[in-house]
Amino acid sequence: IFFLNKSTIFCRHYSHSSILNILKTAPLGQQISVQGWIKSLRKQKELTFIEINDGSTCKNLQITLPSNLSKNITVGASISSKGLVKQSPKGQLEISAEDFTLIGECDISKGYPFAPRKQYEPEYVRENMHFRPRTRLFSSVLRIRHAATLEIHNYLDSIGYFNIHTPLITSNDCEGAGETFKIEPDSEKLLKSMAKENQPLHSAYFNKKAYLTVSGQLHLETVAQALNKVYCFAPTFRAENSKSRFHLSEFYMLELEQAFLNNLDDLLKVAEDLVKHVIKALLDRHLDDLQVCTNGKIDHLLINKPFIRISYLEAQQILSTKLNKSSLKGIGKEHELALTNYFEGVPVFVINWPENLKAFYMKQIPENNVAAFDLLASGVGEIAGGSLREDNFEKLKSRLPINNSEFDWYLDLRKFGYVPTGGFGLGFERFVQFILGIENIKDCIPFPRWPHNCKL
Ligand code: 4AD
């Protein structure tokens, strides 16, 4: 009997499981091993109550441990532990642990920036960027980013779009706004060895100036002429001197392009369906993280109505007659926010813009307008922008930046078997900012870059 008991103890099998799986599927009485970071700690005479999180969900798992074993543990430390799944008096699953292993200690007095049970301002959390993923809010933001990314890929795949890897190093400024970052090797020695006679040193590597891309659109347009429905979802870079809560120097953009497209309405439909699909999927499958990020305020996501569609002219009329905010120079951020408020939070497409306010590649339509749109969302303003592309060779040529041979290949597309295309770019961080109702876009991306800030 002694032998049998002993072997039972030694052979006890603990299956390892993530907290997400334990909370979903672990049956009472199952032996489980878990690992994670301690989020809270309550020591009582007999038992210590530890809440751990392993990153798989925003929910913590409670572990009870005999207090005589829990001397060296603190909030923030990482541990592994094993025990039996049981039900707490409040009816929640918890682990009754027999033991634990301290993986990494966390002595807050040695400079760890976050104390237990304290709320911090986003600016303070941002200053401690390397520890920011450990906060409850930011880890939820990261899981939502992941889920939204997957939903974008899934949705576009389901309606026949191909993911194209457009280059990050380019030789053109697609938007023509002069917001490019120039790139060149850091080694002057290398540049000197590569430079040809009479060639400026800064263009020695590629024989021309090269930039980090501001948009994958022009490359996507080339592929749309062969694969029809294409998209890219990649980092883009803008050298804007803006520290505003809506601007980043590096952000992710979902851009799509579709051939055989003659009608702006068809493009608006793709944008609206995509936005609605992602939001619905998040509400259906990631409500816990959404609740954490939005503080439970998800009303703005329950968009059952069709998005509003107004022309630029109508937008200006509403701004001047109804909102007392007339503007001669386009529609600024203040106007964008006022318009979405006016339409009670329903996203707004502003279409048919004056051509002098928009990029050279947009299709001209009567009255000096272009067939373009901006999509405005509550609390953030513009989250996406797109257009039909100019298909007329001469018109396009006349609108190109002067003496710019960089666009020869782009013009060439129009000469050979060209079909009209249209597309748009959705700023991913602005989209996330809108979904989560987050004040500052810098809190929607793992490692934000903005002027004078390139931490980590
Ligand atoms: O309106 P933009 O400049 O459009 C383009 O780049 C087109 N080439 C897209 C296309 O048609 N394929 O940028 C598109 C979106 C904006 O609506 C905004 O959401 C986001 O990109 N965006 C920024 N997001 C964060 N920080 C910045 N500095 C941004 N600039 C633009």
Brief overview:
This is asparagine--tRNA ligase. The protein has 456 residues and is α+β, with helices and mostly antiparallel strands.
Write a structural description.
The chain folds into two domains: 10-110, Beta Barrel (OB fold (Dihydrolipoamide Acetyltransferase, E2P)), CATH 2.40.50; 133-179 and 214-443, BirA Bifunctional Protein, domain 2 (2-Layer Sandwich). Helix content is 30%, strand content 25%. The protein is built from 13 helices and 18 strands. The protein has helices at 2-11, 19-25, 122-127, 136-158, 188-194, 217-227, 264-285, 287-294, 312-322, 333-342, 393-399, 408-413, 428-436; strands at residues 15-16, 31-43, 47-53, 61-66, 78-87, 93-104, 162-163, 169-170, 181-183, 210-212, 229-237, 250-259, 308-311, 348-354, 364-365, 369-377, 381-388, 421-427. It is globular. Residues 1-10 have low confidence and may be disordered. 4-amino-1,4-dioxobutan-2-aminium adenosine-5'-monophosphate binds at residues 174-175, 215, 217, 238, 240, 247-248, 251, 253, 255, 382-386, 423-425, 427, 429-430.
Number of domains: 2
The CATH architecture of the largest domain: 2-Layer Sandwich
The radius of gyration over CA amounts to 27 Å
Shape: globular
The helix content, as a percent range, equals 25-40%
Q: Could you tell me the CATH topology label of the largest domain.
A: BirA Bifunctional Protein, domain 2
* Share of residues in strands: 25-35%
Largest sheet: 9 strands, mixed
The strand count comes to 18
Which molecules are bound besides the chains? 4-amino-1,4-dioxobutan-2-aminium adenosine-5'-monophosphate
Secondary structure tally, helices: 13
User: N-to-C terminal Cα separation, in Å?
Assistant: 60 Å
Query: Given the helix and strand composition, which structural class is it?
Result: alpha+beta
CATH superfamily of the largest domain: Bira Bifunctional Protein, Domain 2
Q: Give start-end ranges of low-pLDDT stretches.
A: 1-10
Tell me, rounded to a whole number, the average pLDDT: 93
CATH class of the largest domain: Alpha Beta
Pfam families: tRNA-synt_2, tRNA_anti-codon
Protein name: asparagine--tRNA ligase
EC number: 6.1.1.22
GO molecular function, one term: asparagine-tRNA ligase activity
